[in-house]
Specification:
Distance between the termini: 45 Å
Shape: elongated
Strand order of the largest sheet: 4-3-2-1-5
Low-confidence stretches: none
Oligomer: single chain
Strand content: 35-45%
Radius of gyration: 22 Å
Order of helices and strands: EEEEHEHEEEEHEH
Mean pLDDT: 92
Number of helices: 4
Number of strands: 10
Length: 157
């Protein structure tokens, strides 16, 4: 049986509009009749949360407004787009390793955003994170040389 979700916009003083809410939550009922609540998190996924219950009980502030499934899915898309608005239009990055005193120190990827910004990220155990390695090299506050590498090589460092 396919889950039937009911979607809700959470509005606050800072986000007072139902069409641009602070958060979107949803409820669904399982085969045993138990009600489940989920919120679309900053991890870009629906996760179990009790936001609706806490607002209804007066423990948290905010107003709950029923919305359509389409509005809930639009909220997902908008949140994802906000984070990825600076991604390269063509999806292509250039990869480099920073070599200092003959030793590979880190890997970066660079690109030009749709807005024309020259951006970079450093590869970490948590994934790619924004960085400023090239500007530090230019200012001599960091030493080493950037050497072009492949994506596979960068992600293995």
């Amino acid at each position: 049986m396919e889950r039937q979700y009911l979607y809700y916009a959470i509005v606050t003083e800072a986000f007072p509009r139902v069409d641009e809410p602070a958060l979107v939550c949803r409820r669904w009922v399982d085969a045993q009749g138990l009600v489940h609540e989920e919120a679309f998190t900053d991890e870009f996924k629906w996760e179990p949360e009790e936001v609706l219950t806490n607002i209804e009980a007066g423990r948290w502030t905010g107003e709950i407004h029923p919305i359509t499934e389409e509005a809930g899915l639009r909220f997902e898309a908008i949140q994802y787009a906000r984070v990825h608005r600076f991604d390269p239009t063509d999806g292509n990055y250039e990869y480099f390793k920073l070599v200092e005193l003959g030793k590979t120190v880190l890997a970066i990827r660079t690109w030009i955003s749709p807005q024309g910004h020259d951006l970079e990220e450093t590869h970490t155990a948590s994934g790619w994170l924004r960085s400023h390695v090239r500007s530090k090299l230019e200012r001599d506050s960091m030493g080493g040389d950037l050497i072009p590498i492949t994506q596979e090589e960068a992600e293995s460092l």
